[in-house]
Design a protein that fits this description.
196 residues; alpha+beta; 8 strands; 17% helix; globular
Length: 196
């Protein structure tokens, strides 16, 4: 009887440890098939209760910005507002955040790496307002700012440079002064990179 009880308790303890490991992983990026490239972002910290120390971290951060959503191989520009626990930063270079719709054309959930723990992802909801159909954002290197451009031109650029974040093709080919075909969206030279 004692052996049976020890086996049951050992099995239960193993199950609880395994369950804790699975739950501690956080959301599964495979459940987030879309990609979001944040081009501009501003945030403010907020405290839900009175802070006793200036060194305390805020309860949450809120802000707004502009980004491109990559869905079904198409770039779609949108503006967003958010309120999240972890800082939300503009995408570096051509990197994107995994995303999924929570409410079609209204709320996108993206996965944000925790500061100091990039393997640990947290969900953050973006309240979105889509740009007019057929428009996307990109970084214009000529005047160093984010501008709207035809999504069709951006799609041409994506095809030319084999850039498709939904398929993990996150490093465009043929940039950095290498000639690679027709003119890039919004630039006067085919050697300038588009979105940053």
């Amino acid at each position: 009887m004692r052996r049976v009880l020890v086996c049951i308790l050992s099995g239960l303890a193993g199950y609880l440890v395994f369950s804790g490991v699975v739950l501690a992983r956080g959301p599964d990026p495979a459940d987030y098939p879309l990609r979001v490239h944040i081009l501009k972002n501003s945030s403010r910290s907020r405290h839900g209760r009175e802070s006793k120390s200036f060194s305390e971290t805020p309860d949450y951060l809120d802000g707004e910005g502009g980004a491109d959503l990559f869905e079904r191989g198409q770039p779609l520009g949108f503006q967003f507002k958010y309120s999240c626990i972890d800082p939300l930063r503009a995408s570096e270079a051509y990197a994107t955040y995994p995303a999924r719709w929570k409410k079609s054309d209204k709320t996108l959930e993206i996965l944000v790496p925790q500061p100091g723990k990039p393997w640990n992802l947290e969900g953050c909801d973006l309240q979105v307002v889509m740009l007019r159909p057929g428009l996307a954002y990109f970084w214009n290197p000529d005047d160093e700012r984010v501008v709207e451009e035809s999504a069709a031109k951006f799609k041409e650029w994506m095809m030319k440079h084999q850039y498709d974040p939904e398929k993990d093709l996150n490093d465009p080919i043929g940039l950095n002064g290498e000639p690679s075909g027709p003119e890039e969206p919004g630039s006067s030279s085919s050697q300038d990179p588009p979105p940053k």
